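Lab notebook page, bench 4
Experiment: in silico fold of construct C2
Operator: M.H.
Input chain length: 194 residues
Purpose: comparison with the prior construct
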Amino acid sequence: MREIFLNFHAKLAETAKEELRKNRMKLAIICVSLCFLIGCGNAAKPVGQNTNALAVSTTPEKPQTAIAHSSEDQTSKPVAPVGDKSKWTASGDPIDTKELDSGVMAAEKALGSKPKDTAAKKALADAFYKRGVALTEARQYASALGDYRRTLGHDPTNAGAKEWIEKIVMIYDSMGRQSPKEGEEPPPLPFTKK
C-alpha cells in the first residue's frame, strides 16, 4: 500500500513539474513573440531614394544642398520626458469567444439570482478566467487583463489570475508602455469567420 502511495505521489510530482515547465515555456514564447511584434511595429519605414541629392531649389531664398538623410535644416521633434510610457493598444489575433462569452453570461445570470452564493461567484470567476486564458493565448493581453481582474473581483484567492496580471503588467512595463487601468480594458477583438 505504501509503495502505491509513493508511486502515486511521485507521478503527481512529476506531472506538476511538467505542467510548470510547459507554463514557463508558454510565457517565454509569449514574451519573445510580443517583443518581436513590438520591434517590428516600431521599425523604420523605408525612404524613397533621392536621385537628385545635390539639386538646387528654384526658390531664391535658400538653395537645398543637403542630402535627404542629413539633419541640416530639419526641425527637431519634441521628445517625451524619460519615464513617460506610451499608451497601450488593443492587439493580438481575433478569436471566436462566443462559447466563452455564453459561459460568462450564464454565470452572471446565476449570480444575479443568488448574489450571496459563493459557488455562483466562483463559477463566474472561473468563466472570466477561462476567457482570459484564451485571450492570452491569442495575444490579446489588454482584454485578457480585464478578465483576470474581473476574476479576482469574484474570487480574490485565484492565484492564476493574480499571476497573469503580474505577468501582463510586467510585459507592458518592459516595453515602456502603460498597461490598461482597471475598467479601461477593451473587449476582445471582433472575430469574423472566413
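Observations: Residues 2-41 form the longest helix (40 residues). Confidence is low (pLDDT under 50) at residues 48-59, 62-82.
Next step: discuss at group meeting.
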